[in-house]
Amino acid sequence: MTALRGKEIDSFLARPDPARPVILLYGPDAGLVRERADALLASAVDDPNDPFSMVKIDGDELAADPSRLVDEAMTVPLFGSRRAIRIRAGARNFASGIDTLADMTPKDCLIVIEAGELRPDAPLRKACERSRTAVAIACYADTERDLARLIDEELRPIGATISSDARAALVGLLGGDRQASRNEIRKLALYAHGAKEVTLADVAAVVTDASALALDPIIDGAFSGKVTVMEAAYAKAIAAGTYPGQIIASAQRHAAQLHKARLALDDGRSEGDALDGGFPRLHFSRRTPVEAALRNLSSERLLRIITLLADAALEMRRQADLAATIGQRALMAIAVNARQRR
Q1: Which Enzyme Commission numbers does its entry carry (predicted)?
Q2: What is the largest CA-CA distance in the chain?
């Protein structure tokens, strides 16, 4: 099994193994998936914009003819340059193409596959993990240590330090999507350019909550029973190109945290302690709607919501073309449920 973890990932990304040219990047952090894919592909070819060097394939199209992957991977470049193939996985299965490549070693061709969150038994993930020529790399949300390293990395070019309270506040506003977090830090660095130290006031002035990618109004609207707010925020996110599965994944995390807090409340903990235990990094601006949801939703109702969201996530993978509608329907059901008295 070739599934890299921890420090193995950093080592491999720094120096990819030529004997394993097929790289699957998957997970809930779409920004980290894109960032790692961009870095790998930029180092693999001389010009990522050259169509002769970089081949882009849609995963659902590839599923109709998985043998195309082998043909593309084994194609000899006309001018002797290196080649790369970038595949964005969809809802359809092209794992048989990976299985066929397992018996071959493409020369001077890197194959990078970008996917969302994949279950351990997902065909694509299984195919890459068992192949001798492939690796599977999970891309999960940054930990506080990862975010601290990211902050230092982005502030280093302007030669500024960051105060401890500003760092703590900034970490609390980041996470969930690597590219969104990086963009927020870069915006902060531009704002503080010329200063010796980034302060809490600087963070408050320019940084938004990148951890939810503007999903908080959708989630809080649904769980507090504000149907109109939820619908408007959901429509705005979809129009902006947000993948519906990302919204449902955020709702699943929120439901799990609410359930944990609700169980603590049922065990006799104070509302404040229960909330802090379930949401250790809850931003102050969200505290009121989350408190309302905690008071109104019982642990049994939250379990039903968790099941509802899991079913919606599965159905969205099965019917990718209806993902936006399926997500909206699930969130609407939660909002209607939340408006009802216990």
Answers
A1: 2.7.7.7
A2: 71
Which is the CATH superfamily of the domain at 3-138? P-loop containing nucleotide triphosphate hydrolases (3.40.50.300)
Look up tokens 């915006």; give the residue.
187
> In this predicted model, what pLDDT tens digit does every residue of 227-278 receive, in sequence order?
999 999 898 888 867 778 878 988 998 999 999 999 988 888 888 888 888 8
What one-letter code names the amino acid at 225?
G
Q: How far is CA 224 from the centre of its chain?
A: 24
pTM, two decimals, is 0.61
Amino acid letter for position 162: I
Domain 216-337 annotated CATH 1.10.1790.10: no
Helix (H, G, I), strand (E, B) or coil at 136: strand
% pLDDT > 90, the chain: 38
Q: Residue 89: CA atoms inside 13 Å, Cβ hemisphere, count?
A: 29
144-206 belongs to CATH 1.10.8.60 = yes
Sequence-ordered list of residues with C-beta below 8 angstroms from that of 29, at least 6 positions apart, any chain: 139, 140, 141, 142, 176, 177, 178
Residue range 321-342, pLDDT digits in tens: 899 999 999 999 999 988 876 5
pLDDT band for position 209 (cuts 50, 70, 90): low
Query: Helix, strand, or coil here: 137?
Result: strand
**Rounded distance between C-alpha atoms, residue 80 and residue 98, angstroms:** 24
Q: Quick check: 85 and 51 in contact, CB under 8 A?
A: no
DSSP track, 61-100 = HHHH-THHHHHHHTPPPTTS--EEEEEE--SS--HHHHHH
- Domain borders along the chain are 3-138, 144-206, 216-337
Instruction: Specify the pLDDT at position 79.
Output: 64
Which distant-in-sequence residues (6+ apart) come within 8 Å of 239 by Cβ?
none
Q: What is the pLDDT of residue 258?
A: 92
